[in-house]
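Reviewers of the previous submission asked for a worked example of the structure-prediction workflow described in the proposal, so we include one complete record here. The input consisted solely of the amino acid sequence. No template or homolog information was supplied to the procedure at any stage.
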Amino acid sequence: MKNRKKKWVNLSILIDEVNRLYYRMQFVEERTQAFENLDSAERSILFFLASDDATIPELAFMRNVSRQRMHQITSKLQKKKLIEATYNPQHSTSSKFKLSLVGKKILLRMLQREKKLYKNLIPSTDDRFILIAKKLKEIRQLFEKVPF
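From that input alone, the workflow returned the following structure tokens.
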């Protein structure tokens, strides 16, 4: 097999496995977190905001949805008192969102359930997981640069 064709086949296999993993993890996550009374979009926003405050455009980009759709999701989360709007020093008319105290508590419960699930599925990890994560991040960042 030519080297170029082999690289394409390797990438194709990787992308197929990532897609399969994504859908399986989505299925498992729906069942693991179902009793928090949050849909997957709401849960993912809590996870995103765990690492940093974000604006609607930033959250929309991460979820690959329109700003209008993200506004609907953040409004629902604000009504549930799980996130709060804060002042955005870079843009006075566009708020940043952060987890509220209640949102942090719910996120902590979800993370504890995930940790238990992952430890049962994969009892030990090694440095290969870090290498795989770095490579997947590199590929994701390349796809984020695709102009549409």
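The first strand starts at residue 54 and ends at 55. We consider this example representative of the routine output the project will generate in years two and three.
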